[in-house]
């Protein structure tokens, strides 16, 4: 099979490390339940199925049987197994029996919704129903068209994003209320994608949608019942995942009942670099090789780097190959999607944005650079090819890439997929969602004395809801989130991030720029920092400045003649505390030479400059000539696992000791990501610039590593590392044996770690110092401290000059700090508005009467 593979291997001198071949499988069919074969349904189904016998695959019939018995259903079978037919048949059943019924189909990605929109229209037309009953509302549809679409559609396709930002924001309007009243079916396609920050936000959105539905029908769900269908090819424990996602119970139809046939596939591990210039060059060579084959064979390439996608396509320089990633404007996405559907594109190079995207029947070849971020992602990418004929999939990675994880290629392929992680206890997600729910229930006239009935709400949400009410007392930690939401929480709290401000990408003159895209701050400091070469939709731009004044958050760029890549110089500073309020639920284990703990973590990331080739440009040098060339940063609070070992092989400031800590930190992070399918950008590690928060301020450590959630407020993704620490150490040891010199850590280091961990026992309460503040004195930031101040949602660093008490009308004197203003002179900031960022700050004592200062003295 697939003899062109040998042609590619020979022509490009490819080294095959390992190969897997999957067998084909014959179909198993079963007749549809008699309960739905009434009225016009038999004739419509014969036209839909293209046969007279009214049989479908085994799993499809079983799912429809559950639906006729009024159960919510999750269909969890492999890619290309016809899961969509289940909800299509049920939708036709509802349309045929109830003219007032409305169906909401939620697709997680615009590309998928756009592709399925045409399929839905063709489907209803084929069975004799006017295709105008199918409507689509996503970010591409102008707002002035949405009410009419909502009123006319009986089948409505939406992304979660527009459901949250538009539908629920307008839940009090007539068209929305009428739609909710008739809503009888919610379809969640590709449900496994709902994980991490995005999935956790969507979990609250779905509960809010159900609450609004109940209110629109005045709680009479017997008169206006609704059900939910979910589909997924790659999720573990589907029933539990859907219960967490929706607050409802589900019947499961899984792979054991799958009656669909499938084609053979060849899956090859090719030797090569898995990232950077060498990896991207290898991808470009393979693409050129595919395009040189005697017969046209369509392909899709996956790269987990937005800028890497752009660089590869520029290198190929062929109009029949285009890039696809997030951050494009609607017209750019539509142009690429249309070209994929009509066959004018030979292939596409994409990020994970097309993992669930357009289904192209003749897509034969898939390529992924590096091991995908999860086994779920791997199987989704694999599922893009071989849908109507045998297919081939290449994984480009170093020979020891799987061995480093303590696995073989076959182990990786056969292992079950990871759970789809939801952490519904994230207090910042809860606060943002509470703000939205309160607005929705207010316009619907609901009594919010208690949480809306009908679904199970996450633990702690009721308390957060109380603090989110207008005028309610709230913890200071919610101030920044509250400011981001302002008076438009549905619009200002996007589903795909938590607590991150976003920037428009603008091209043109300062006084008349045009918007070409958008980017979140955590991506901007890596891709669109001042001076960077930023690639967008196949074009190269120079980044001129960040604009954060007058309520504006924008990054201004201009067309660049050069596409020479730039690389950011990033600095991470990580702080944690071992005081009682710094440790999560007392989760500390210790021995004579160290400890393991799950803790609350504060992370500061900053871009200090950038490199072009061998030239280094630091902002501290550039800013004198161009003030726009200044460092940018993000600061967030999260959770993580800290490991401290006070032994010479681990502790110290030598290069060898630093490398040991770095390799252990990166190895544990990569194993955690691999084991649980955590996206690489959702978990990170630090082995330097780690500070222990003491009574007097941060103390820098050389005996610690931290693996932490890179998500604002934490999704508690590193919790399993604490719970199963010895298991991960064993995996590091197996990786050392399998990968040899390419292992994450050496055999010697792995053995030392395992030996050290054997004596860990629960530590109970740790002895930590605390501050004694004498009468008449105040605890203040030490003069010369570098602290953070938020302006328009963007963090700026300022130096504390001195404290001051400021008289305020009708109130007690308030503590302020004087700091130098960027434009000259000085300004003052209240104590409560200061953010403790980085490690260049400390406490001291100040007597406001005598103007004396005193260093901190602590009691152990």
Automatic annotation (TrEMBL):
Record's keyword annotation contains Hydrolase: yes
Annotated Helicase C-terminal domain residues: 285-449
Key words, A-Z: ATP-binding, Helicase, Hydrolase, Nucleotide-binding
GO molecular function, one term: helicase activity
Pfam families: DEAD, Helicase_C
InterPro entries in the cross-refs: DEAD/DEAH_box_helicase_dom, Helicase_ATP-bd, Helicase_C-like, P-loop_NTPase
Domain Helicase ATP-binding positions: 64-253
SMART domains for this protein: DEXDc, HELICc
UniProt name for this protein: DEAD/DEAH box helicase
Provenance organism: Paracoccus spongiarum
């Amino acid at each position: 099979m697939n003899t062109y593979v040998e042609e590619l291997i020979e022509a490009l001198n490819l080294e095959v490390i390992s190969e897997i071949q999957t067998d084909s499988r014959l179909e198993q069919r079963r007749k549809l339940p008699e309960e739905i074969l009434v009225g016009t349904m038999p004739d419509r189904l014969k036209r839909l199925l293209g046969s007279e016998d009214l049989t479908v695959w085994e799993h499809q019939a079983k799912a429809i049987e559950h639906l006729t018995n009024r159960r919510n259903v999750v269909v969890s079978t492999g890619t290309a197994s016809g899961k969509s037919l289940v909800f299509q048949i049920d939708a036709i059943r509802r349309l045929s029996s109830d003219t007032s019924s409305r169906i909401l189909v939620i697709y997680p990605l615009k590309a998928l919704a756009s592709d399925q929109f045409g399929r839905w229209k063709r489907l209803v037309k084929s069975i004799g129903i006017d295709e105008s009953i199918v409507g689509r509302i996503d970010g591409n549809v102008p707002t002035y068209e949405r009410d009419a679409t909502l009123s006319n559609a009986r089948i409505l396709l939406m992304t979660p994003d527009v459901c949250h930002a538009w539908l629920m924001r307008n839940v009090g309007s007539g068209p929305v209320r009428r739609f909710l009243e008739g809503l009888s079916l919610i379809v969640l396609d590709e449900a496994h994608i709902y994980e991490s920050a995005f999935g956790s936000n969507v979990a609250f959105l779905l509960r809010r949608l159900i609450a609004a539905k109940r209110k629109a029908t005045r709680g009479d769900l017997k008169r206006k019942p609704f059900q939910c269908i979910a589909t997924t090819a790659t999720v573990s424990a589907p029933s539990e995942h859907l219960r967490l996602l929706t607050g409802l119970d589900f019947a499961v139809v899984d792979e054991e009942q799958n009656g669909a046939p499938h084609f053979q596939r060849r899956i090859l591990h090719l030797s090569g670099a898995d990232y950077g210039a060498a990896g991207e060059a290898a991808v470009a060579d393979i693409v050129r090789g595919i395009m040189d084959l005697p017969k046209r064979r369509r392909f899709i390439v996956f790269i987990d780097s937005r800028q890497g996608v752009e660089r590869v396509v520029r290198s190929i320089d062929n109009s029949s190959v285009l890039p696809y990633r997030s951050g494009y404007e609607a017209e750019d996405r539509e142009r690429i999607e249309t070209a994929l559907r009509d066959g004018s594109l030979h292939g596409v190079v994409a990020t994970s944005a097309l993992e669930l995207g357009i289904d192209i029947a003749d897509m034969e070849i898939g390529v992924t650079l590096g091991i995908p971020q999860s086994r779920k992602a791997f199987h989704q990418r694999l599922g893009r090819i071989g849908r109507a004929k045998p297919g081939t999939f290449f994984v480009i990675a170093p020979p020891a890439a799987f061995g480093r994880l303590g696995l073989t290629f076959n182990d990786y392929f056969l292992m079950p997929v990871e759970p789809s992680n939801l952490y519904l206890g994230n207090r910042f997600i809860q606060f943002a969602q509470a703000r939205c729910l309160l607005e929705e229930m207010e316009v619907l006239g609901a009594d919010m004395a208690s949480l809306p009935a009908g679904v199970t709400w996450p633990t702690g949400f009721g308390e957060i809801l109380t603090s989110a009410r207008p005028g309610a007392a709230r913890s200071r930690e919610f101030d920044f989130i509250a400011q981001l939401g302002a008076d438009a929480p549905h619009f200002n709290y996007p589903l795909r991030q938590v607590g991150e401000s976003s920037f428009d990408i603008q091209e043109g003159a300062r006084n008349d720029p045009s918007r070409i895209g958008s980017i979140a701050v955590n991506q901007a400091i890596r891709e669109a920092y001042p001076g960077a070469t930023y690639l967008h939709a196949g074009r190269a731009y120079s980044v001129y400045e960040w604009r954060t004044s007058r309520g504006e958050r924008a990054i201004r760029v201009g067309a660049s003649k050069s596409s020479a890549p730039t690389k950011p110089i990033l600095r991470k500073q990580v702080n944690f505390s071992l005081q009682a309020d710094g440790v999560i639920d007392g989760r500390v284990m210790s021995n004579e030479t160290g400890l393991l703990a799950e803790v609350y973590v504060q992370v500061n990331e900053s871009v200090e400059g950038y490199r072009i080739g061998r030239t280094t440009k630091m902002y501290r040098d550039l800013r004198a000539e161009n003030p726009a060339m200044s460092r940018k940063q993000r600061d967030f609070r999260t959770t993580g696992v800290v490991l401290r070992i006070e032994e010479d092989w681990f502790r110290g400031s030598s290069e060898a000791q630093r490398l040991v800590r770095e390799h252990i930190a990166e190895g544990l992070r990569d194993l955690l990501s691999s084991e649980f399918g955590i996206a690489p950008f959702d978990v990170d590690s630090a082995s330097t610039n780690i500070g222990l928060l003491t009574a007097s301020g941060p103390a820098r450590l050389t005996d610690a590593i931290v693996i932490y959630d890179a998500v604002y407020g934490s999704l508690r993704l590193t919790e399993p590392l604490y719970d199963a620490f010895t298991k991960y150490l064993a995996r590091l040891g197996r990786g050392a044996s399998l990968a040899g010199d390419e292992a994450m850590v050496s055999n010697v280091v792995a053995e030392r770690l395992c030996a050290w961990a054997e004596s860990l026992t629960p530590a109970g309460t740790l002895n930590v110092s605390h501050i004694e503040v004498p009468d008449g004195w105040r605890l203040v930031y030490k003069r010369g401290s570098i602290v953070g101040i938020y302006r328009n949602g963007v963090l700026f660093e300022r130096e504390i000059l001195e404290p001051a008490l400021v008289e305020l009308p009708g109130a007690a004197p308030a503590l302020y700090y004087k700091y130098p203003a960027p434009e000259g002179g000085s300004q003052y900031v209240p104590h409560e508005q200061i953010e403790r960022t980085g490690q260049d700050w400390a406490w001291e004592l100040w007597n406001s009467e005598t103007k004396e200062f005193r260093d901190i003295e602590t009691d152990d």
